[in-house]
Design brief:
Blueprint: H1 6-17, E1 21-23, H2 25-28, H3 56-63, E2 71-76, H4 83-89, E3 96-103, H5 106-121, H6 124-141, H7 154-157, H8 164-179, H9 184-195, E4 204-206, E5 211-213, H10 222-238, E6 246-251, E7 267-272, H11 282-285, H12 287-292, H13 299-307, H14 330-341, H15 350-372, E8 375-386, E9 388-390, E10 397-399, H16 401-411, E11 414-424, E12 436-444
Parallel strand pairs: 1-11, 2-3, 2-7, 3-6, 7-8
Antiparallel strand pairs: 4-5, 8-12, 9-10, 11-12
Helix pairs in contact: 4-5, 5-9, 6-8, 6-9, 6-10, 8-9, 9-10, 14-15, 14-16, 15-16
The structure holds S-adenosylmethionine.
S-adenosylmethionine (SAM) binds at residues 48, 50-52, 78, 80-81, 83, 102-105, 108, 253-255, 273-275, 282, 309-310.
Length: 445
């Protein structure tokens, strides 16, 4: 077993000692992963591996004694599949929630936005959906020849990944939805159902880091898969009782919430889980669904999307520019990052890793500064984040995002109330106790 870089570990130990750090595994271990999401109405519309649990928001509200409030404004700036917003809309009727989400990925925005709009639409949507589905079936099974263009992503042309006969069906479903009779929302629900079949009808598997070829996998039949998903969605919409409240998900940059929310709308709770600084690129992981739905036309659009994301991955070379360097906090940020930057091994990944550490910190500082302007005096900010190991052998070091973010938040005038360690992510290769996932609570200072 390798020791993680001891200077960096000592740096984290000193940082952590400044705050109240507790073992939160009993409460949070099962909530920082998508426990229960596959069995819950709306949450189950698309399986997002990186989501947190449907039960996280209720648990946070209880802890912070916010659950009895008459009105609550909640913001999630990295909305993903919309777990926070769907959970918020499902709260008790005595609480009126006004929930806002921001999501940059076009496909994940489609999913979360469709979920929250459907939840608010009520039962007439279920009727519309039944009718539109009938029409999709009529078109799909007819002799009509609709030209279904294969997305210009090479993955779709690989016959091992997508057996041609199944791909043709998948594309025909998409075309039939495009031409069916129905409202925009009904069609969006059907498109969500179709996109959620892309993985199961192929030999690709998301393993948390990337899309992998799974030769042993038996792809499912697209129409059967699609129909059963639509039935499930109709069931969910049919059983919804309107609880009041309003939710909106913006497609945009969650690092800059002030672009979407004006400073007079003070938030009671900000809760989010950002991409972790672990090289995972959401644009890559959810690319087949996004191309399938037509969100990218060509490689240039796909690449531009990567540049719009949080600097948590080295898939593209972001500009070497950091706002913190010209801010009054420059010295403090350097003091925070230097021990970590000094541990970056001098190899071919060196430039990418250095950019990731500085870019991630820069984005987080911007985010915390902007959120500080829209939090109410008694409000709270809760973030869920995982730390990660980088490098190998003697050159292994950990990026402790929970602590780095906590310090950046202080620089942006937040007070760290608690660092609750939800679960250990220790690997066989290293025993750093900072390899973990945490739930951190901040209050305005
Ligand atoms: C850990 S996931 C959030 C999952 C979410 N909590 C859920 O339960 O579904 C992080 C999300 O941040 C999104 N993201 C990345 N860069 C972003 C940006 N600049 N603005 C907004 N969202 C971004 C990713 O597309 C991804 O959906």
């Amino acid at each position: 077993m390798t020791e993680a870089n001891p200077t960096v570990e000592a740096h984290y130990k000193t940082l952590e000692a400044e705050w109240n750090s507790v073992d939160g595994s009993l409460e949070f271990e099962r909530l920082v992963v998508p426990t229960g999401n596959n069995d819950s109405a709306y949450h189950r519309w698309f399986h997002l591996k990186e989501a947190f649990s449907v039960d996280l928001l209720p648990s946070i509200l209880k802890r912070l004694s916010l659950e009895g409030k008459r009105e609550l404004r909640i913001l999630d700036c990295f909305a993903g599949g919309g777990t926070t917003l769907v959970s918020a809309l499902e709260m008790q009727p005595q609480t009126r929630v006004i929930a806002t989400g921001i999501e940059q990925n076009p496909f994940l925005h489609h999913v979360s936005n469709t979920k929250v709009k459907s939840l608010q639409a009520g039962r007439t949507l279920a009727l519309q959906l039944r009718e539109s589905f009938k029409d999709v079936k009529r078109i799909y099974t007819s002799d009509l020849l609709y030209k279904a263009k294969t997305p210009a992503l090479s993955t779709f042309s690989n016959e091992d990944y997508f057996p041609p006969a199944l791909l043709a069906k998948l594309l025909r479903i998409r075309q039939a939805i495009k031409f069916c009779d129905g409202s925009t929302l009904a069609k969006d629900v059907l498109l969500t159902a179709a996109a959620s079949c892309v993985e199961s009808t192929s030999r690709l598997r998301r393993d948390g880091r990337a899309l992998r070829y799974a030769a042993e996998r038996q792809p499912r039949e697209p129409w059967v898969e699609f129909s059963s998903r639509v039935q499930q969605m109709i069931e969910d919409i049919d059983s919804t009782t309107s609880k009041g409240g309003a939710a909106t998900i913006h497609r945009g940059d969650g690092r800059r919430p002030l672009l979407h929310i004006d400073t007079s709308a003070k938030q009671d709770l900000v809760v989010f889980s950002p991409p972790y600084p672990n090289n995972i690129d959401y644009t890559e992981i959810y690319k087949t669904e996004a191309w399938y739905l037509g969100f990218y036309e060509d490689a240039q659009e796909f690449r531009s999307q990567r540049f719009r994301t949080l600097r948590s991955h080295p898939s593209v070379r972001f500009k070497d520019e950091y706002d913190f360097e010209s801010s009054p906090d420059a010295q403090a940020v350097h003091a925070l990052l230097n021990p970590i930057l000094s541990a970056v091994p001098d190899d071919r990944y060196s430039a990418g890793r250095t950019q990731l550490i500085k870019g991630y910190a820069d984005d987080m500082l911007t985010l915390f500064r902007q959120l500080r302007e829209i939090i109410s005096n008694e409000g709270r900010l809760v973030y869920v984040v995982g730390n990660s190991a980088h490098g190998s052998g003697n050159a292994l070091f950990v990026i402790a995002a929970d602590l780095v973010m906590a310090r950046l938040a202080e620089l942006a005038h937040w007070r760290v109330e608690e660092i609750s360690v939800a679960r250990s992510l220790r690997r066989r290769t290293t025993n750093s106790r900072f390899l973990r996932e945490s739930v951190v609570t901040l209050a305005p200072a």
